[in-house]
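Progress narrative, Year 2. Work on Carboxypeptidase-like regulatory domain-containing protein from Aquirufa novilacunae advanced from sequence curation to structure prediction during this period.
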Amino acid sequence: MRLLTLLFLAPFFIFAQQKFQLTGSVTEKGTTIIPGASIFIEGTTMGTQSDATGHYVLKNIPPGRHRLVASMVGYIPKLVLMDFPGKITELNINLEEDNKTLDEVRVVGSQDKLWEKQFREFEKGFLGESYHRKEVLITNKEVVDFTESSDAFSAKASQPLQIINKSLGYKVTYFMDNFEKTNSLTSFKGLASFEKLVPEDAKQERKWKRNREEAYEGSLKHFLKALGDNRIEEEGFNAYLLKPEYLNNLRRGLFFDRNNERHVAFKTTELIGITTPDGLTMLNWKIPMEIVYNRKRVTRPIFMDAPYPYTILIPRGPIQITSAGDLMNPYSIEMRGEMGKIGMADLLPLDFDISQP
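Result:
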């Protein structure tokens, strides 16, 4: 079964009406100005660029702790953890030249059949298994190269990947740290910046709104928010803690196991731990959990009494979530099943609000 270890590093947000701004300049070695550098809150649509003098202004920052990223082609991205409100309202950023990106990017010829095959394999693991290839495109695929061995397939990119997602209405710039696929696991990690595309007309705008809602509903973010709010069933989820000995024996019995042969009874409130002043909630969750989202149906269900998207979530360390359902440590939960099939093509920005899709 395909497994997916999440995606990009998630900052957290405490949304409120008050907004903040950050100003500063971007330079090399503290002296040479860098115009056109991107400054953004990682994983969100909040970003700006430095002007001709290297100066930038990032506005409308919500309160909370955020990962601020400064990047420019040819330089190593700089990540700074920032608190708003905080003592710092001006931040000058110094970028270092990245010698790796000075190498020539690969020129893909029609005869390079192996690379094309490898790229298709990469697309499937990176973008996901259910996206529409005509609507989600990596526009600079020539920057990707691959390494294969008997037990692993990995990819690296000499420049940030540029992804146009015409299904959800975003342009995504992804600074890929690593990508690896084995027989049992697909994982990738990096920094993402989202930019909303401009719809051609009202019809396309309505389509994007529907697709964003569809991507959110039944997602890990949706489930974790429902769990934190103690609204699992109200949001359309059925969830049970799974006895570990049944983890690799999915088809034994029914999903709604009335005899509790496979399940451990729990109350949602028992899993919700303390919440910090910053809005982080710790989950007291130690064994696998199996979930269905009963507001969607599938044609080939795992269990005949539950013809719905099915997922197993396996804790792999301390789990902390935000009030919006974002996972602080992307490696703290392993996903099997439906949620494990998602990729960048299905991913929404961290500042996505279901009430204003």
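The chain has three domains: 20-102, 113-198, 217-341. Confidence is low (pLDDT under 50) at residues 1-16.
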